[in-house]
Amino acid sequence: MGNIKVSKPSSDRKKNNIRNKYNATADFYNNRYRNIQYEKYARMLNDVKLKGRILDLGSGTGLLSDFLNKKIIDVDISINMLRKSKNKNRILGDAENLPFKNNVFDFVLSFTLLQNLLGFKLFDEVKRILKPDSFFVLTILRKKYTPTVDKELGKHFLILKKVDCDEDIGFICRKTYK
Prior knowledge:
CATH topology: Rossmann fold
CATH architecture: 3-Layer(aba) Sandwich
CATH class: Alpha Beta
Strand content: 25-35%
């Protein structure tokens, strides 16, 4: 696997289906979705001053890394997607069981990942790895969004802003000392 680090694999059926889907689409993903994703990144990160240690959770082919042109860490469940990334800091891993110590990231960015997961365990993991007073920026496909997302997100983070991203709904949140 070259320079891709591997974390603990998942045995969850839905995750395996998602992994297989993205492994199968990796070769044409960038051509199909680059412009859509770049528009989302621009809308969500327009007023955000990214600094410090940054994680792209559900990074896919590394489009966000290319867009930001910053040193970030990519984590994705699909080996074929990660192989397409130019980013050297790539980890094959499960967003709900991250291989990081507590309180290590200043920003966790996660675009269009949440709808691929069952429940909201992701929020526990992101809260665990974020430093206090750090930020979580995420989007979810509008067609998969329900008000439960706001409710569950609000249990873990302070929601600073909700953003319309056309096919997605986005949130800019901060980890607080609740």
